[in-house]
Design brief:
single chain, 528 residues, globular, alpha+beta, 23 helices
Length: 528
């Protein structure tokens, strides 16, 4: 980092973006998909129906739980909303004195079920991680311990923030960069314009999403405040997320108050807020309690609070304590990052701005190779480090969307009753991504770009047809039933596939500029 301050920032911007660029691109891509996590899960569970109101679903959930677990210690009901078409229920069996608490099972265990939101019938949906995988990969990666993955994602996000700040210092012509794009200029100039445009276009969003991403995991990265003020993590969480005291069963049987009535009371107390998660303790007993948690998408802050009701009379007993300024600020940061509060229009803005972030990272990676290729003694025979970066660029920029599409293909093509099905869906992501990197390493650069982008375009754009051939979820059915979310999902796949196909077409048409040979001094003198 020699030279002037701006030159030092340019160096920092270049290398902080390159070293972590491939992981950042994958994080941006999966994070972009996360804004439609419920819709992705609905698409990957074609056995489920459209969303429904919570009133009828609450009664159906209680009826099912009374049938399968009438004497359970507690019930938990996650109600559907305008984006989800199922009710998820679970229960904790009553333990006998001295009996150990059963270990938590991964995936869908024996003590949970998925109910159709409209009919209340049990839905035997295929085993899939759905949109949850993209959400989890976005901040904790995969195939590594969770804490290590979160640390890795945090380091990448921190360097992304460094790249943003150093980029702002380096590029001081913001308004000019916003309106400048010269695709027919020299390669370096065109890629630099594309990088500047996609960066400036949504710069406030990029800065916000990176910073709030770090804040959401600040307890992991900066634990010293908690350690200095609390004896244990349990004491900290007990104060930040207080819960009511457990009440022992009395042994006197009593029917549960109508759950829709309790939910309506909770909604009225919140000024029209939506109930989301319902926890019932001691169901069927005179000491039953019903805790209703507010939907996380009702307000900017992600923590909506809860109300506790008497399970027999339906009267409200208590309200969760008001959050303090620090808790509210943390919840707002988390809410900004997740975007759950956003209406459909704002959610699409999140999606498009995040796509611009993907393009920003991708163009920055390509710009590194374009700029340095011109400085090579022989551009046709670059050194190993240059070839490595170039091949990783191709394999990642085309491979990540191809891998994500491969997971959706696996969702449709793998047998529904296959053992370990959801794990193989996830494996398809890395098989597709790794295959693209391997292919890029074996092919000439230009052909590798065209072929990998072409394959990615096909995998994405063909998904609606694969879905129509293998399930009843297709464009025509979505249009006839008014399922606009699934219709938009398929149309978005067409649009993204078309965008990748356009990139492949541009790569096929690209011709490298011929570098003019330097004329000798003698020739210049004779010409003069």
């Amino acid at each position: 980092m020699n030279g002037s301050f701006r030159q030092s920032m340019a160096w920092l911007h270049t290398w902080s973006g390159l070293v972590f660029g491939w992981v950042l691109f994958a994080m941006f891509m999966t994070g972009t998909a996360t804004y439609f996590r419920p819709e992705i899960t609905r698409w990957m569970e074609p056995e489920t129906g459209p969303p429904a109101s919570y009133g009828a679903t609450a009664d159906a959930a209680v009826a099912h739980l009374l049938k399968v677990a009438p004497n359970a210690k507690s019930w938990s009901i996650t109600l559907p909303d305008e984006r989800q078409g199922v009710t998820r229920v679970s229960w904790q069996p009553e333990r006998k004195p001295g009996e150990e608490r059963p270990r938590r099972r991964g995936g869908r265990g024996q003590n949970q079920a998925t109910l159709d939101a409209a009919t209340g019938e049990v839905v035997k949906a295929r085993d899939t991680r759905g949109g949850e995988f993209f959400y989890r990969f976005h901040f904790q990666l995969h195939y590594m311990p969770v804490i290590f993955g979160r640390w890795m994602a945090g380091v990448c996000a921190m360097f992304m923030l460094v790249a943003i700040v150093s980029g702002v210092i380096t590029h001081k012509r913001f308004f000019k960069d916003f309106f400048t794009f010269r695709p027919k200029k020299a390669a370096q100039r065109s890629w630099l314009d594309a990088h500047n445009l996609t960066a400036v276009l949504a710069l406030p969003f990029h800065a916000m999403i990176t910073y709030t991403g770090l804040v959401t995991l600040m307890g992991l990265y900066m634990p010293w405040g908690v350690q200095a003020n609390y004896k244990s993590d349990e004491a900290y969480f007990a104060e930040v997320f207080p819960r009511g005291e457990e009440v022992a069963r009395s042994g006197a049987a009593a029917p549960l108050a109508p759950l829709p009535l309790i939910l309506d009371k909770a909604s009225a107390a919140w000024g029209g807020g939506r109930p989301w998660i319902v926890n019932v303790s001691n169901p069927g007993d005179a000491t039953a309690r019903v805790e209703v948690t507010r939907h996380s998408g009702d307000k900017l802050t992600y923590r909506g609070g809860s109300l506790t009701f008497d399970g027999v009379t339906g009267a409200m007993i208590s309200e969760s304590p008001k959050a303090g300024p620090v808790n509210v600020t943390g919840g707002a940061m988390y809410g900004l990052h997740m975007g759950r509060f956003a209406d459909p229009v704002l959610r699409w803005f999140y999606f498009l701005a995040s796509l611009a972030g993907c393009a920003m990272v991708a163009t920055g990676l390509v710009l590194w190779t374009v700029k340095r290729r011109q400085q090579l003694p022989d551009p046709e025979k670059p050194y190993f480090g240059f070839r490595l970066v170039e091949r990783l660029n191709i394999g990642t920029i085309a491979g990540v969307p191809a891998g994500m599409a491969a997971m959706l293909w696996a969702n449709r093509l793998l047998p529904a009753e296959m053992a370990g099905r959801s794990a193989w869906e996830v494996n398809a992501v890395f098989i597709g991504w790794g295959g693209m990197i391997l292919w890029a390493a074996l092919r000439p650069t230009r052909k590798a770009w065209v072929e990998t982008l072409g394959v990615a375009a096909f995998l994405v754009a063909a998904l609606p047809f694969v879905s129509a051939l293998t399930t009843q979820r297709n464009l025509a059915r979505s249009l006839m039933t008014g399922d606009w979310a699934m219709l938009a999902f398929d149309l978005t796949l067409f649009a993204l596939g078309g965008l990748l196909a356009f990139c492949a077409w541009k790569a096929a048409r690209y011709t490298a500029p011929v570098k003019p040979k330097r004329r000798s001094a003698k020739f210049v003198e004779e010409a003069a």
